[in-house]
Amino acid sequence: MCVQIVVNYLIRRRETVIQALIELRPELVYHHGLSKHYPIENLEAKVEDFINSRDNNSLVKPCGLWRNDWQYRLHGIGCELVHHHTQEKFDWDIGRPDNFIVGELELHLEWRCKTQQEAQEIARYINWTHTQGGDFDRLWNHMIVHRLILEVEPYLWTISSSVRQKLGQSQ
After folding, report:
1. Could you give the CA distance from residue 102 to residue 29 in angstroms, rounded to a whole number?
2. Which of 106, 124, 138, 158 sits CB 3.0–4.6 Å from 2 for a disulfide?
3. What pTM was computed for the model?
4. End-to-end distance of the chain based on CA atoms, in angstroms?
5. For 136, how many CA atoms within 13 A lie in the half-sphere containing its CB?
């Protein structure tokens, strides 16, 4: 169950980058239909305010500081965030909030292993890597073989519905 918790944590933490995009580029969020998959209050009003401020030569900088703690960099249809103190990093292109790519999970897991070793699921993963000779590739194969994750498109993955149900019951 620790693997599922790690993946679920990554997906839930994605809300941070979604909030940044809603504040920094609401028209992008609107255009790509993120509100179909993620509840966004007053999105049309936020887009209108954004367009009006842009018309008044108030442009969003491609990079800067967001909410005093996050360094952001806007790119294409996404945003990269890095937290000043923890170095937690997200780099996400707008899409379904519950989908992820392999590298995203691997980087997230590496960061958590460095900064959150006391978290039960991370401690179990670290112990597994030391005692069983595990690594990320073995973990990834385990998740696929046991259908903990499913490929929804080439290179794009999500948590299986059975895992979602288990997580819903345990939280």
Report:
1. 23
2. 124
3. 0.84
4. 12
5. 13
